[in-house]
Amino acid sequence: MIAAIIVLSALAGVSGLLLGFAAVRFRVEGDPIVDKIDAILPQTQCGQCGYPGCRPYAEAIAAGEADINQCPPGGENGVAALADLLGRDPKPLSAEHGVAKPKMLAVIDEQNCIGCTLCIQACPVDAILGAAKHMHTVIASECTGCELCLAPCPVDCIDMVPVAQTIATWKWTYPDVTVKAAA
Amino acid sequence: MSRLYPFHGGLKTVRHKTESNQQPIQRAALPRRLTVPLRQHIGAMAKPLVESGKHVLKGQMIGQADGYISAAVHAPTSGVVTAVETRPVPHPSGLPDLCVVIDSDGEERWIERQPVDYRTLHPSELRNVLRNAGIVGLGGAAFPSAVKLNLGGHCEHLETLILNGAECEPWITCDDRLMCEQAAGIVAGLHVMAHLLAPREVLIGIEDDKPEAIAAMTEACVGTGYEVRPVPTRYPSGSVKQLVKLLTGKETPVEGLPVDVGVQCFNVATAYTVHRTVDHGEPVISRVVTVTGHVSQPGNFQTLLGTPFAELVEQAGGYREGVERLIMGGPMMGFALHSDEVPLTKAANCILAASAEELTPTQPVMPCIRCGACVDVCPADLLPQQLYWHARAKEFDKAQDYHLFSCIECGCCSVVCPSHIPLVQYYRYAKNEIWAQEKEKQKAELARQRHQARLERLEREKQEREAKLRQKAPAKAVKTESEQGGKLDIETAVARAKLRPDSSTPTATSKQDA
């Protein structure tokens, strides 16, 4: 009886020490699941999900506050990837957060730009170049197509144009094949 | 006879070589207008050096190599640049690309050509000469050769240098004719390559259905120590990794290059352009191209780059009736062109006018029965039926587990498939999707970093503002004190004023006035 109590207490003590050591030694900073969700999100930083950027949305998903279908730029593929990661069922994009659109690029009509810098302040990825009372322009390679610059522009001189396909971005399409069932 | 090491799989294909390899190479007529694409190679597009209206000389550089993996582009003849704009180019997409359009003046006036002595030049200078001459692999891939002529960190010492004269695709005979007629020039170019790479042995692989070419090359190699090795005619022996295996027995590692196992491989036509550059000072402005299939007089033509395919076909006697498709490259790996108004590029080794006779009839696609015929012929030792399975289901990571990127798209599996499944189309699709996703991911990562940097900057600015405010705060406190002091002063002044006997009177009067 006493032997059993001593053995079990010793075991409990050793396990406790081991667990305590592991908790300190292998401590994970931050929440790794947030990083994984953030890696799937398209980083458009458009805020269509209702959160101020992709990371806050990732944090909300991880905390169970937001659903996985609130990101239109990520599209159905993004929802599927999130569902796969989180072990949930994929679902269609939620209509209230917008619809998936082809990739767009903001273009400033430089003739009409008055140099107010409002769009520069709105751009979440600093992709607009310019200074007060000087013409602004969009750095095409950095633009995520989030459309956040459209609303603040007082002269409506920013247009969203679809990203043109070039030889460098062209892809072979899925083979157009109808499989004939064996008779 | 040295030992050969057969690669797995492969096919005995129909040859169709005699249609075009019976006559010597003809010189194609000078076209009135040349359209020279600035992207004729793998890597970054060349930077245009000319503008509309400028007169150029034959061989003048009109596009500069932009970055390490890139190649220069030159004016194929003398004339006037009429446009630098996007024009249709030979590409499976049919999309246009940036081209320099030159109206020839018919004089063919050369730039000053300066041959160099490769033995005295520093290797990096020599590579620069080749780079500025726009030399790329002329076998079809068009990879900048100067990059391959630098061993870099891949291997300490090159074991074998291979010259690829296999030309395994049906119909194509441009390398065959070039070896027959310019063997000495090819060997002269090979000297330069061997000088740069210092290999232990130099092998020349030629398929044994080209006896004339083998004889010519053997004769040209007498006394050089280079060895001509006839290889069995079996498609795709001209594919780099397969030829390396065949001649040396070495397997190129997955996601690696032959140079990782001490072997480097060049096409015979590339060696010839090296000779033209080093010994004659001529950059790459023309190439030999096979025009064959359903044309009246098939043959090989030494053609200026930028010549429209339609004009070339005309020189080959024009189309015969019933041409359904124009293919650039061979029937196995080539692609259908959207129009014959596209210009000849460095990568174009063959123009095949295909009628119903040349094309395998399209048959209804049936489900995969997992017979394994594709496994037997795959020269890359892959499992094509598994790749198909996963590519069709868009399970790209699983396709990569089966080494999708080791697929050379030779088309053997598609040819033997009893269900007529266009297998290679699925692999191309899957590869493109994976590349696109990879690019997307890189772009997203860039956006994430930039957004993060912006948030940090905003936070920093906020803190700086607050710090400034705090700095101002004590000053403000002092001011308030002095303000209070001021108030006190005013109060005392008012009190003093009140003490004065006549002080309130004027105010009172004025109030009364009002």
Describe the structure.
- The complex is a heterodimer of chains A (183) and B (514).
- The longest helix of chain A is centred in the first third of the chain and has 24 residues, at 2-25.
- In chain A, the strands form 2 sheets. A two-stranded antiparallel sheet of chain A has the order 1-4. Chain A has a two-stranded antiparallel sheet with strand order 2-3.
- Chain A contains 5 helices and 4 strands.
- In chain A, α2 (32-40) packs across α3 (54-62).
- Chain A has helices spanning 2-25, 32-40, 54-62, 75-86, 118-122; strands at residues 104-108, 128-129, 137-138, 158-162.
- The termini of chain A are far apart.
- Chain A has 183 residues and is mostly helical.
- Chain A folds into 2 domains: 32-97, Electron transport complex subunit B, putative Fe-S cluster (3-methyladenine DNA Glycosylase II, Chain A, domain 3, Orthogonal Bundle); 102-167, 2-Layer Sandwich (Alpha-Beta Plaits), CATH 3.30.70.20.
- Chain B is α/β, with parallel strands linked by helices and 514 residues long.
- Chain B has a domain at 119-328: Rossmann fold, CATH 3.40.50.11540.
- In chain B, strands 1-14-13-17-15-16 form a 6-stranded mixed β-sheet, with helices on both faces.
- In chain B, a hairpin with a 7-residue loop joins β7 and β8.
- Chain B is globular and about 130 Å long.
- Mean pLDDT of chain B is 91; it is low at 503-514.
- Chain A binds chain B through residues 38, 41-45, 53-54, 124-127, 142, 144, 165-167, 169-175, 177-182, and chain B through 39, 89, 91-93, 95, 97, 364-367, 421-422, 425-426, 428-429, 431-433, 436, 440, 444-448, 450-451, 453-455.
